[in-house]
Write a structure and sequence with these properties.
- The chain is of the alpha/beta class.
- The chain has two domains: 2-75; 91-280, Rossmann fold.
- It is 45% helix and 15% strand.
- The chain contains ten helices and ten strands.
- The chain has a seven-stranded mixed sheet with strand order 3-2-1-4-7-9-10, sandwiched between helices.
- Helix 6 (112-123) links the parallel strand 1 (103-107) and strand 2.
- It starts with a helix and ends with a helix.
- Bound molecules: ribulose-1,5-diphosphate.
């Protein structure tokens, strides 16, 4: 009997550690997927220790913290997972209203909230194409391009340093430009959002060229706490780099709200300040 119990315990620890490692290695990526995986891990063995270990696996994910707080307070796993499905449905209903036929929508990295909304629009016969960026060093952009292609959406992937080319209106004569930008978010804060490194450059270009930037994100990503920016391993950038070369590998960055045309969440399409008000209520 005890042997069986010990075996079960070991198996549970193994499952939790696997999820934590997959999050650390970005095999599980994106705020929504990370949070769902964390919920799964937490409910294998609900405890303060499990919670702490999960939180440490990805510091730039307040949604994981918010959801683990809910789990700790007694909200069931089913209720939490139901929120993600319901919220995504509402996000899809709103995002489709923003998409016009012949749009070119630019996106960066890989956001499940964005991709699900684009696939929903495609299934409802919207005709648009997507430009996306490869997102070095871990190439989440390839995942985005593959998923969109599999859904029948026309997609063109650019190297990261071609961001300006992909969204600048000056290039209109070559038909290389985006007329709408959809980004996901890891964190929604009072003054702006946090998302994959490169997002601020996208936002500044959007502002300069008057291309509307929408953040497509579940409201559970909101936090009042300071969000630490994760700096990842230097090997991801240059494995076995010569000594005495400094390398920086920040994974996320802050985008001020002044660059954001609207937030598409389960509350609908709102300006940043309207969203903050709605969230408070
Ligand atoms: C992913 C990323 C995504 C947000 C939102 O970065 O920046 O835009 O997490 O994603 P990484 P979602 O690949 O390093 O996790 O919409 O899936 O919550």
């Amino acid at each position: 009997m005890n042997k069986k119990r010990d075996e079960n315990q070991r198996e549970n620890v193994r499952k939790i550690n696997k999820i934590i490692n997959d999050i650390k290695k970005v095999k599980i990526q994106g705020a929504r997927n990370i949070t769902k995986a964390a919920v799964k891990a937490y409910f294998i063995f609900p405890s303060k220790k499990t919670k702490q270990m999960l939180l440490a696996s990805r510091p730039t994910e307040p949604m994981m913290g918010n959801v683990l707080d809910l789990a700790e307070s007694g909200i069931s796993k089913e209720k939490i997972l139901e929120h993600f499905e319901e919220s995504q449905k509402k996000i899809n209903f709103s995002t489709i209203k923003l998409i016009k036929n012949n749009d070119t929508i630019f996106t960066h990295c890989h956001s499940t909230n964005v991709i699900n909304a684009l696939i929903y629009a495609k299934k409802r016969e919207k005709k648009f194409k997507v430009y996306n960026t490869e997102t070095r060093p871990l190439f989440q952009g390839r995942k985005t391009a593959k998923e969109l292609k599999e859904a029948g959406i026309k997609v063109t992937m650019f190297i990261d340093s071609a961001i300006a080319l992909a969204i600048e209106k000056e290039s209109k004569k070559d038909k290389i430009y985006a007329n709408k930008i959809f980004l996901g978010a890891d964190a929604l804060t009072k003054n702006g959002i946090i998302n994959k490194i490169g997002s601020k450059m996208v936002a500044e270009l959007a502002h300069l060229h008057k291309i509307p930037l929408y953040i497509i994100a579940d409201s559970w990503k909101f936090t009042k706490q300071k969000v630490p920016i994760e700096h990842r391993s230097l090997n991801e950038v240059w494995d076995k780099a010569p000594k005495n070369i400094k390398i920086k590998n920040p994974a996320f960055e802050f985008v001020p709200k002044k660059y954001i045309e609207g937030i598409v969440s389960e509350f609908g399409i709102l300006s940043y300040d309207q969203f903050l008000k709605r969230f408070k209520n």
